[in-house]
Amino acid sequence: ELKHPPKYAVVLLNDDYTTMEFVVEVLKRYFNKTEEESMQIMLRVHRDGRGVAGVYSFDIAETKAYQVHQLAKSRGYPLKCSVEPQ
Ligand code: TYC
After folding, report:
1. Which atom of ligand 1 is least distant from the CA of 20?
2. Beta carbons within 8 Å of 28's beta carbon, 6+ residues apart
């Protein structure tokens, strides 16, 4: 039987203070999304409270979540994301 390596979703969480522009920038920079994809994902998070930015192996997902938090902190935004097993 073939075993597939487990996958982890990086889930962006909505808040009232992070700008839409910054979330789109994050999605393009760390999740390699196009402008259009980034806008769609950002608006979904804004509307639904959460949304998947990307799905990766555990180490890559943790690294991306860390990078998001670091950049958000450096800009003074409270943007949060979580790493969730698929
Ligand atoms: N709700 C934010 C606003 O109205 C935008 C936003 C979207 C913030 C997605 C975080 O993960 C987020 N400025």
Report:
1. 5
2. 34, 35, 38
